[in-house]
Amino acid sequence: MPGRERAVSLAATSRTARTARRCTRRQWCGRCWPRDNWPTGWAWTSSAHERFATVDALSGGRAEITVGRGSVIESFPLFGFALEDYEVLFSEKLDLLAHLLPEAPVRWEGTTRPVVVAIIGGPARQFAPLVDLYRRALKQAEQPELPVGVHSPGHVAATDEQAVEEYLDPFVDYMNRLGRERGWPPMTRDHALEQLGPNGTAYVGSPETVARKIADTARLLGLTRFQLKYSMGHLSHAQRLECIRLYAEHVAPRVRELLA
């Protein structure tokens, strides 16, 4: 990695570690890693592991790394890769990362990693057939049932009104930028507000509102984990920190209470 890029990378890692120290994340807390700063899967696998190991150490073992295959394919030609090598690229980078992980402490409670369904559009109920298919496939293969998680965008503030006010414009800007890249029609404010509502894809509101929506999704899909993607568009650093604090101190305990 070039020197300047490496300096920026380590600075971002340090900021993330300071944030993670404030988070008491356990099963239901959102991630404290700014995904926009994470190296691409094919760029520098060893650097990705280095940053993960650094945050894991500085945060007292609360960091977590998830490797997945996203829907964005525009970056393949950007980095000089052919889309037909999709499978090989993922397998090779995953294998390299797996060999790197034993060199650093790994902390994990439980016996398996969950399958995580990324819901970034539409209500959670639309994904119930997909989760059901996954569980039926496990049963058909005579395998034990495995945990399922959901990853969705959201924002927590003191009140519903404040959360929507802070989140609406960054959410619209972000979705419209993706739309321009992928050919989606522009998102109107009315459509955005619908996505921020009770049946939408985003978990936005006061701690009580967000907790109840997460609990409803957990019951619907039989979840064991929920991941909140709190970094969206041009939300300020202070707003993101406050979201993390409210999530850890109020949302997570309330979800556990609702699901008890």
UniProtKB/TrEMBL annotation:
Pfam families: Bac_luciferase (PF00296). SUPFAM superfamilies: Bacterial luciferase-like (SSF51679). The keyword Kinase does not apply. Keywords: Monooxygenase, Oxidoreductase. Transmembrane segments: none annotated. Gene3D superfamilies: Luciferase-like domain. Residues 50-115 form the Luciferase-like domain. This is LLM class flavin-dependent oxidoreductase. It comes from Ornithinimicrobium faecis.
